[in-house]
Amino acid sequence: MRMKLTSSFAVLLCVASLTVACAAQEAVSPAQNTSVAAPDATVVAQAPAGIPHLQKQGNATQLIVDGKPYLAMGGELSNNAATSLENMDTIWPKLVAGNLNTALVGVTWAQFEPVEGQFNYVQVDGVIAKARENHMHVILIWFASWKNGTSSFAPYWVKKDYQRFPRIQINDGKTVSLSGPLELLSTFGDETRDADAKAFGALMKHVGEVDGTQHTVLMVQVENEVGVLRDTRDRSPAANRAYAGPVPAKLMQYMEAHQDSLIPELRDVWAANGTKKTGTWEEVFGPGKPADVVIPIQTTSPPMSALDHMTNWQSLHWPSDEIFMAWNYALYLQKVVETGKAAYNIPMFVNGWLQQANHAWPGSFPSGGPLPEVHDVWRAGAPSVDILAPDLYLEYFDEVCARFSRNGNPLFIPETSTNPANAIVAVGKYNSIGFSPFGIDGNRPIGADLAGTYSMLEQLAPMILARQGSDAVTAVRMSQGDAPKNVKLGNYTLTFTYTGRNMRLAPQTRGQSVASPPPPGVAGVSGSEAPPEAAAVLIATGPDEYYFGGGGMRVDFTANSPGPGNVGLGDVQEGKFVDGKWVVTRQIAGDDDAQGEILVLHPNTILRVTLYRYP
Ligand code: DGJ
Predict the structure, then answer these.
(1) CB 483 within 8 A of CB 527
(2) Residue 353: which of 345, 344, 363 has the closest Cα?
(3) In the predicted structure, residue 573 carries a pLDDT above the cut 50
(4) Phi-psi group of 66: left, alpha or beta (phi > 0 → left; psi -120 to 50 → alpha; rest → beta)
(5) Is 167 helix (H, G, I), strand (E, B) or coil?
(6) Cα of 100 to ligand 1 centre, how many Å?
(7) Which of the chain's ends, N or C, has fewer CB atoms near its CB within 10 Å?
(8) Distance of alpha carbon 193 from its chain centroid, rounded?
(9) Within 13 A of 425's CA, how many CA atoms are on the CB side?
(10) What is the helix (H) or strand (E) element at residue 426, kind and residue range?
């Protein structure tokens, strides 16, 4: 188990500790504490004890339910699943079988307020009752003015009254785009905003009445993937007037007050245009897209280069348009959220459809949504929104988690795919409040692998949650072909080598080379698919003790403190937590750890390992 401290190893250690230091620095920035997680105290009352709320712990923000931190092992239902309670009857058993503790369930404005001023509580009451019966929690999604940028869930009485509830216009005043008519309500519609807020207030008042003591409902996502599609901004007459006017003082003051901690993408755009304290949107943030430039279906077509294709998923294009829209969606959402919180104050979040490599221009993704580059704009305009969340289908999972964790934004992933490695990394490394694949009742069922990961995380949750925000918990992910990875945790440096997630690889004896990765096909996957990623959560529970959850990797240990140079596996237990108590299911030695010399972590398996030192 002994390793020499080579120079590349030293560099890796250095990088690892720098990363930790940077994360810690971000976490204590004063700006974040004043502007981020706390609901607007002037608008909403402090949550009574027991009611779901957010609480900081180190550099993490946790969801507290009934006085304890909560880890949401979730899944989002397809959009209309809960519009029929009969349909839901077939879905609850699948959620239970998948080891979910939380379902994200849509409540549509159209169904909730079919006639203006008349509210229908049948669906929401039915969902809450069945969730309780199935020992689950729910996070509601308020599908109202916007869902994926468009307004298909607005009630009929809103849709047809397009004078009272105006639509966006694009290009030179059009309401039809290359891809068809635009059914997008405009943020420049005060009556729309007030009607949405009134309905949402009624929903939250009712949830408070029926759930204020039992806390089945944990949080609410307000709207879904807001933003302008098919143009970079709204070009209706009201929007054009606002765009030609000055950037509102409230936004300018926020930017000045937070100048040192602004998200770099926004700070750079501001600086590139002279860090002006006042001016029109284009004076302060640079040019917007000319109205006659039509958004191509794929924005990597010319003038974009191949390099653009690789990098555009996080570059800003026509920034003043995106920032302008972010500000106006934030103001609108602030009104809706503050009305809901005044009725029942539980955490509320918004979710963003992210920029993609081939959809990089705002408008090819909803322009103005809560994307990382405009997080500060959202903070300034919608201080009552607790979490700015990513719908994370991009392959750059870790990078997106890191970008959504800046300036203390709590991480929660309401939509994603079912990769179990992502669940482990989100919770163990990025302190996520939860993980939630989309469409679990339909085209993205929870398979056995993720169900196993959820069960494992649920058992480890008390230990993980007690350490989130500190350096006693983290996670590692590896793919076939990766070089070994070093992680400094507790008194040891842990070196991970990929062995393959889907096989129980027999450890090799000392002196043999590190286990080679299995070829595709051997690991239980077809040759054309990438082998599944390996991932494990690592928890340091004592000076020489670790718990590991998950695997597909072997671990070698190097001591970081003075003492004998060799590290031995003193005691290795495989086990599980039953009612919070550790139960050993197998004692590991002999063939299962190469006669005590090599520790191999297996998927969805928990190990408790005690190390010792010898000369
Ligand atoms: C993202 C949206 O937020 C969901 O409601 C759903 O439409 C999915 N896309 C479909 O993949």
Answers:
(1) no
(2) 363
(3) yes
(4) left
(5) strand
(6) 20
(7) C
(8) 26
(9) 18
(10) helix 420-428
Q: What is the bridge-based pairing of β-strands 217-224 and 348-353?
A: parallel
99 token code pair = 């080891």
* Cα 232 from Cα 404, distance rounded (Å): 22
Two tokens, residue 463: 């230990």
Gap between the Cα atoms of 86 and 90, Å rounded? 7
Q: Which two tokens stand for residue 229?
A: 């599609």
Residues at CB less than 6 angstroms from ligand 1: 79, 148, 224-225, 391, 415, 438
Beta bridge partners of 56: 61
Report the distance separating Cα 145 and Cα 480, nearest Å.
Answer: 45
Instruction: Report d(CA 482, CA 148) in Å as an integer.
Output: 36
Q: Are 218 and 102 in contact (CB under 8 A)?
A: yes
Ligand 1: nearest atom to the Cα of 106: 5
Backbone phi, psi, residue 583, to 5°: -120, 120
Integer Cα distance of 193 and 240 in angstroms: 19
Angle formed at CA 304 by CA 298 and CA 310, multiple of 5 degrees: 85
From residue 282, give the alpha-carbon distance in Å to each of 89, 242, 272, 273, 285: 53, 12, 12, 9, 5
Question: DSSP letters of 121-162?
Answer: -HHHHHHHHHHHHTT-EEEEEEEEEEETTB-TTS-HHHHT-T
148 CA → ligand 1 middle, Å: 7
Q: In whole numbers, what is the pLDDT of the chain averaged over residues?
A: 87
Residue 511 to residue 217: CA distance in whole angstroms:
55
Distance 28 CA to ligand 1 centre (A): 34
Give the C-alpha separation, 137 to 103, whole Å. Answer: 6
Question: Model confidence at 465, in pLDDT bands (50, 70, 90)?
Answer: very high
Instruction: State the Cα–Cα distance between residues 446 and 100, nearest whole angstrom.
Output: 9
Whose CA is closest to atom 7 on ligand 1? 148
Rounded Cα–Cα distance for residues 437 and 400 (Å): 16
Taking only the tens place, the pLDDT of each residue in 432-455 is 999 999 999 998 999 999 999 999
Distance 266 CA to ligand 1 centre (A): 27
Buried b (16+ CB within 10 A) or exposed e, 130-155: bbeeeebbbbbbbbbbbbbbbbebbb
413 phi and psi angles, rounded to 5 deg: -115, 95
Report the nearest-CA residue for atom 8 of ligand 1.
Answer: 438
Q: Please report, as a single letter, which amino acid is at residue 285.
A: F
pLDDT digits (tens, 9 = 90+) for 399-428: 999 999 999 999 999 999 999 999 999 999
Question: Distance between CA 282 and CA 568 in Å, rounded?
Answer: 63
Query: Can you read off the two tokens belonging to residue 36?
Result: 């981020």
Taking residue 250's Cβ as centre, other Cβ atoms within 10 Å add up to 12
